[in-house]
Amino acid sequence: MPSPTPIAVLASGRGSNLAALIDARREGRLAADIVLVAGDKAAAPALRRAEAEGIATLALDPQGYPDRRSYDLALFERVAASGAALVVLAGFMRVLDAAALAPWAGRMINLHPSLLPKYRGLHTHRRVLEAGDAEHGASVHFVTPELDGGPLIAQVRMPVLAGDSAESLAARLQPLEHRLLVACVAALVTGCIALRADGVHADDRRLDAPLQLAVDGSLQSA
Ligand code: GAR
Fewer CB within 10 Å of terminal CB in the chain, N or C? Predict the structure, then answer.
């Protein structure tokens, strides 16, 4: 059995997606070791979750840096020093500098709570309701300097129901996000998914559309 891939998780908040990755690893569903959990907020519950698991943590305060680039370069220097081969943005709520991202091209993914390319940025649940969409979901994509704009790997979809609020959408999407993220990280560390010059490849076939999370938790062609 190949040795687990070292990964770093960046998180600013609650850390429920981090917890999903930790659980998947513990239950033998994910061939990845989380070697670092880093964030910009020292008080983030995500960092407490990591500490409770004995995972190395880093809280780096942006206020200690003159600009975004110097902060991001310092952050990713520490991420590289952790030995991580893959970086997972799981609720990391900062726009990243292009120079800091460059060395991680094809090795950094982001989870976003919308069916990208719809609703990049913030307040996705509210915007879905305002637009009257019948469907909502979440996406995982490779990170590029364009905010929430990198090549899509996979999505999960769910219906918007009569009477839904931003809160009810968020609550219903959360467990689906967990499964989507775990499935994507699992596929990346086993090499089933990779970013190549011509786009995202799954099992050596270029994707024309993002994979879709099936009810059994597997990723299927659209
Ligand atoms: C998730 O819903 C994720 O999609 C979102 O932050 C939440 C993190 O939850 N990410 C973004 O909005 C990034 N643009 P968690 O802290 O419980 O894992």
Answer: N
